[in-house]
Amino acid sequence: MRVMFMGTTPFSCVILQQLIDDGYDVVAVVTQPDRPFGRKKVLKASPVKEMAFEHGIPVLQPERIKNSVDEVLAMQPDLVITCAYGQIVPKPILDYPKYKCLNVHASLLPKFRGGAPIHWSIIRGEMETGVTLMLMDVGMDSGDMLTSRSVPIAADDTMGDVEAKLMHVSKDLIHVDLARYLNGELVFVPQDKDAVTLAYTIQRDDEFISFNQDVHIVYNHIRGLIPWPVGYGRLEGENVKFHQAKMIETVQSKIPGTITQVTDEGITIACLNGSVIITRIQPAGKPVTAAKDFANGIGRDWKGKIFE
């Protein structure tokens, strides 16, 4: 069986590695073109491209896959597996493989269709999420489902924590569930259209943290953006990023956004029905700073200031 893999991110690498470990004949990898990285804008290959090279697998990097259909189909794939590729796969490719095009999506579909399902599952306060092995179609994560694996979202989990859990259980989607599908043991089940929710790619406006909300909403928003892209607040016209936080529920009368304490433990900011304590912070133009160092530096003058 000739397997083609499409993916770009570190999450994608977990799936590719499992295909390799399970002995599938991965005849080609399709990934995004090299992109400028860092201040010097040096071209950087995707993690999937680097992994493919390590294993001697041919790599295709179309700028627009819809314009490279013939190049892709020239590899004659019997099965296509995708995970976080980053482009819409056109119908001629979807229709070609004997064993279809399957996608590993990081949510319990039909919840959180789209490009940032892990972020939004935390921001929206979900207590559970998962990964789904599904049939690719021309819609956005709208294809029929084969199976899923779930994980809990702990009260203090960040986006990075949940992603690590999902990467771990995703291995079984390939090692166990893909094998069952190829053996005819799994059937496709349509998604419940009435239960669909969307998880669009995080935009710059989504990174702004407003403290004039219930403390749970604020805390979920902050941790749902850690470690990437990291939420920020506005203080005296400058952006301040929040790299680590915890929450306390307490009655307080301060204006939401008010910095009520600056201690070695963290920077306490008032919200509705409680406060968040920022334990790793990044003021504008400064490196990421632990709370203790911040409190002993510029943080001494921050008590009483109010975030917008």
Can you offer a commentary on this structure?
It contains 8 helices and 15 strands. It has 308 residues and is of the alpha/beta class. Strand 6, helix 4 and strand 7 form a beta-alpha-beta unit. Helix 1 packs parallel to helix 2. The termini are far apart. The mean pLDDT is 96.
With helices defined by DSSP (H or I, 4 residues minimum), what is the helix count?
8
Shape: elongated
- Following the backbone from N to C, one meets helices and strands in this order, namely EHEEEHEHEHEHEEHHEEEEEEH
State the end-to-end distance: 57 Å
Fourth CATH level, the homologous superfamily of the largest domain: Formyl transferase, N-terminal domain
Q: Can you give the mean pLDDT?
A: 96
CATH class of the largest domain: Alpha Beta
Largest sheet: 7 strands, mixed
- Given as residue ranges, the uncertain stretches (5+ residues, pLDDT < 50) are none
Class computed from helices, strands and strand pairing = alpha/beta
Round the Cα radius of gyration to an integer and report it: 22 Å
Q: How much helicity do the residues have?
A: 10-25%
CATH topology category name of the largest domain:
Rossmann fold
